Amino acid sequence: QVQLVESGGGSVQAGESLRLSCVISxxxxxxxxxxxxxxxxxxxxxxxxLIDEIGRAKYADSVKGRFTISKGSPEITLYLQMDSLKxxxxxxxxxxxxxxxxxxxxxxxxxxxxxxxxxxxxx
Length: 123
Known about the structure:
Strands 2, 4, 5, 6, 9, 10 and 11 form a seven-stranded mixed sheet that branches. This protein has a four-stranded antiparallel sheet with strand order 1-3-8-7, with no helix packed on it.
């Protein structure tokens, strides 16, 4: 059973940075896409960034230029460097993995999720 474990969340002031990590284990396929999503209280889950099967990164407009997604190997480790944080970035952040090529930041395309890590940005 695939497992995704996020870490790195916390409470920061606006303008500061955080780096989230996600370790994905027991993933049995060599082709996959990975992504970060977030959900604020009372709001729907939304896509933040992804890396598709061939390594292309895609970002939500709200985080372009501030967030950077990357991944490590051989164990699948996903990172999200978040700079110039804003109060509206406050949310629970989730990592996700999907088989093959997924280029949509729509959460409905992603089937495997971590438990989330909380990010709080105060003004």
